[in-house]
Amino acid sequence: MNKGLLFVLSGPSGVGKGTVCKALLKKMPDLIYSVSATTRQPRIGETDGVNYFFKSREQFMQMIEEDQLLEYAEYVGNYYGTPRDFVERTLEEGRDIILEIEVQGALKVKEKFPDGIFIFLLPPSLDELKDRIRGRGTENDHVIDHRMNVAVEEIALMANYDYAVVNDEIDLACERIESIVIAEHCKIEPTE
């Protein structure tokens, strides 16, 4: 049995990673979603174990100490991380898995899984990104400005990725990512 493929979707905060990933999973039900752990508070409508594994700082630190995370990063005062066991088990079972994570985390995953497929999700423009973050209604102007500064830094790291997809319309972004998944499964591996 072939191992599954690891797809990593990341990009700036507010670009729509979660929305695109949710729509993609409806179109591609065999693609497994890797739920991240975080110390941030749940937003309205988020469920523990579905959107994130919500952890206290103490619980998260214990996961770090016990090497239970594939990657982790602190982002705007909260920790985010990918539980290692679930990802490795899914790939060994021959199933594809997608990680929806921040840029810092994606670069750490790339160190451990250089054969992963890394997709950078871009906003149509920085102004649109700022409007999306503001539209959430969950952050004040100071936090929004900080997120925008971080976004500019993260976009500069796009050269570390295999693909770039603009999230101008959710359905189009999903079609582009679905095409990447199909293409990666058709790829011929070089012989040594």
From TrEMBL:
Keywords, comma-separated and alphabetical: ATP-binding, Cytoplasm, Kinase, Nucleotide-binding, Transferase
Enzyme kind, highest EC tier: transferase
Gene Ontology terms for molecular function: GMP kinase activity
Pfam families per record: Guanylate_kin
Catalytic activity reported: GMP + ATP = GDP + ADP
E.C. code: 2.7.4.8
Domain Guanylate kinase-like, residue spans: 4-182
PROSITE patterns per UniProt: GUANYLATE_KINASE_1, GUANYLATE_KINASE_2
NCBIfam families in the record: guanyl_kin
Protein name: Guanylate kinase
Species per Swiss-Prot/TrEMBL record: Paenibacillus apiarius
Upper classification of the organism: Bacteria, Bacillati, Bacillota, Bacilli, Bacillales
